[in-house]
Design brief:
The structure is a homodimer of 400-residue chains. Chain A contains 11 helices and 14 strands. In chain A, 34% of the residues lie in helices and 26% in strands. The radius of gyration of chain A is 22 Å and the shape is globular. Chain A folds into 2 domains: 258 residues, L-amino peptidase D-ALA esterase/amidase, CATH 3.60.70.12; 120 residues, Ubiquitin-like (UB roll) (Roll), CATH 3.10.20.340. By secondary structure, chain A is α+β, with helices and mostly antiparallel strands. In chain A, helix 2 runs parallel beside helix 3 and helix 5 runs parallel beside helix 6. In chain A, the strands form 2 sheets. In chain A, strands 1, 2, 3, 4, 5, 6, 7 and 8 form an 8-stranded mixed sheet that branches. A 6-stranded mixed sheet of chain A has the order 12-11-10-13-9-14. The interface between A and B is large, with 64 and 63 residues.
Amino acid sequence: MANKTITAPKGFVAAGLHCGVKKSGKPDLALLYCPTGAKAAAVFTTNAIEAAPVTVCRKHVLNNPIYAAVVNSGNANACTGKKGLATAKVMCGKVAKELQISAEKVLVASTGIIGHQLPITKITAGIGKSVQILSDSQAMGLNFAKAIMTTDTRAKQATKVFDIQGHAITIAATSKGAGMIGPNMATTICVVTTDGAISRPLLGKAFKNAIGVSLNRLTVDGHQSTNDTAMILSSGLAGNKTIKKQDSGYRQFCQALSTVCGDLAKQMALDAEGATRMFKVVIKGAAKKEEALKAARAIADYDLVKCAVHGADPNWGRIVCAIGSSGVKLDPAKLSCKIGDIFVFRNSKPTNFNANEVSRIISKKEHTITVDLNAGKFQDFCYGCDLSREYVHINADYHT
Amino acid sequence: MANKTITAPKGFVAAGLHCGVKKSGKPDLALLYCPTGAKAAAVFTTNAIEAAPVTVCRKHVLNNPIYAAVVNSGNANACTGKKGLATAKVMCGKVAKELQISAEKVLVASTGIIGHQLPITKITAGIGKSVQILSDSQAMGLNFAKAIMTTDTRAKQATKVFDIQGHAITIAATSKGAGMIGPNMATTICVVTTDGAISRPLLGKAFKNAIGVSLNRLTVDGHQSTNDTAMILSSGLAGNKTIKKQDSGYRQFCQALSTVCGDLAKQMALDAEGATRMFKVVIKGAAKKEEALKAARAIADYDLVKCAVHGADPNWGRIVCAIGSSGVKLDPAKLSCKIGDIFVFRNSKPTNFNANEVSRIISKKEHTITVDLNAGKFQDFCYGCDLSREYVHINADYHT
């Protein structure tokens, strides 16, 4: 079986283990190493309150090359003041010391509970052990993916191999994210590796675009966390000539990267806290591009729509209500809405749809809600998931 | 026992009965009549998709005097096209015919499911019966309150009597509202009566202000419905000299009206779908007045905060996350948060609070979350409620 983990691209080794942050004994420390050095880029939360590792990582990612990335789960190192900032740097420092590289060339991320200091001695000990087991095996790639999980029920991974001028380029990615997922940064942690050789500014541009149409289009509860971090590292070892903007290979790279990130976004929607199914909202006929996205999110974030999806209920009234309440321009006499391919509301009038048939469409793992605002020519989309009793259970009982 | 219903102010009779819209057999038709004619004002949903009765009522409320108001529950008469508009007018017409008044002087509202035509023959028959039982009794006032309910578990009523120059002025109100309650119109239906004599423009101004600091400060799921309507009718029979803007009585009237509407808002929060407790969010130190309200709503609307309140969990990290994600200006080094009177986060650092003690505060029927943004001098507030499994149950299983 081909390696489907972040160690699939040439030039990367990884490790994942339990170092003691999580009481459950599950993996909580992940390490990625690129011995030849990687070009890197990252996208971060826009939450005004950002965690210590975000502050450190923002600075480190400006360096070139980047050699490693370290991530812990179980503790977000957020709202932890100067001490938290120091421990985030200690994480990088320990990795650097073990791998004999510079601490400024290590990326760092944390995810988990807010407001508690990291158990840094456990983490530094874990980093020491991680270095010993670094491997390009699929098993270690999977361990990395598991070690960044919090309330996720399964590891999320996606890979794509494509060809540029006879060279096989691999892109691989893993992410974690369950609750607290919303625009503008629909993940807590996402790590992408590739062996495609590409210039650093182009890598950053392609990554920002890919996250924009994938993770940033996913909304679970409409909020972004203090820790959201997505990073990409390129070893450039695939053998291709460095991709430049005018190359046809650049479009291929962008498409492949968007596909991989889009795949992760769907996995995250389906594994959102308590989620049993997901849906895509497509808005057509918006007066402005940004209004199309705003309207899509208004539907995907609306608890009453999310509950209706959970109940497989073709309650288009709630969709219309969400749209009307979103503040976007629309033609109140010509609004239309489809669930799957079936019009449930057309030119602002209910249709005589078969409720059982539409309910069956909603019952699937994934369906599409399409709304035509009839106010212009712009369109956009986003992904959402249902709201279940389980979401409440998880989030009412996850005590601080 | 004093009459605590909307028939308490002088000059009003009411009725409430089951006419056949609701399958449950519960009351679904409410009629209010002011034989001497009333000054009236109303506030409506700002949802771009408005129900037929909203369109009709917006027009009728411009007339003076207003003699009656008719409300049905069980069917919203929303997204029902021209036919829906016609039936809303038929409702007014039937009331007018029975009471020998003009149809344009009747206010109308509907609440319930969206997208189904009203069973208008049942409603007109019900109006005929309602007229026969109109009474100023407390029992009929209560029946009116019950007849506007949908998923509410109890009738919501509030009254206040105060004195202006030796004349007892009474304000009484009832409202319904469970899910689909959000800014800018935190109710589906609210009917207020008073016998205080006040000029019509002042009545409108006082009402808009009162709704602004009460129902519009309540958020259950952040959305406003297609039908939200709040109306006030003044018979002017209390005997006071007509209140004018410069009178001290105007401030008294405004305060009493705000108190009554605020009382309703709290009742609505506590009876929100699945809610077990409510909370008030107070934002201090905002750079702008509107940012204070925006931040307050960001917290009250955030599902993770609502779940934490449900679990009586002092999870201040989620509060901080909601604030940081809201886009308002704040000092990231000087953010503070109190639950009740206890600081859980001060100058952007967690405090050593007693978790059990704070959990006990959250467990109460009502508590206050106070956040100081340290970015300016403005403050504002809103009300929210917890998010329970029961909310999901109600809204996943309430089939169209």
